[in-house]
Amino acid sequence: xxxxxxxxKATNTALNLLGFKGTATYKxxxxxxxxxxxxxxxxxxxxxxxxxxxxxFHLDHKQPWRYTEDPIGLFFDLNNVAFSHxxxxxxxxxxxxxxxxxxxxxxxxHIFDVGNTYLEHRRxxxxxxxxxxxxxxxxxxxxxxxxxxxxxx
Length: 153
Fold this sequence. Notes:
The protein has seven helices and four strands. By secondary structure, the chain is an alpha+beta fold. The chain has two domains: 3-93, no CATH class; 103-149, no CATH class. A two-stranded antiparallel sheet has the order 1-2. A two-stranded antiparallel sheet has the order 3-4. β3 (117-123) and β4 (130-136) form a beta hairpin.
């Protein structure tokens, strides 16, 4: 049994007529987007401002949409969409946008700002992957003061 016999009819037709398997429509979309980016002079990476290369770009969201109050609206907001290098986009995705990361205050109500926040680099016990957590300096000071006084926190 050959590969074309196993493929669905639409893909089989694309293989016979166009010379490749997969969705021809997807390749056409990318070609149209690339053409428009070049025509508008916007073939630059949103993240690093470097020139994009044909066939090597990702559709990227400027602002993470998953943990917002209106994820659908932000996902489909065309002003929130940009193009980037695959490497730049994947690097940006490594910064996990969980609700705990996006909080503005600690659990005791202190604000997470530059002066009151310190980062702690850790490794996951199972996977060994590094991650970063934010800590509140005010809470740390209060815990240390309570420890010195012999009180629990």
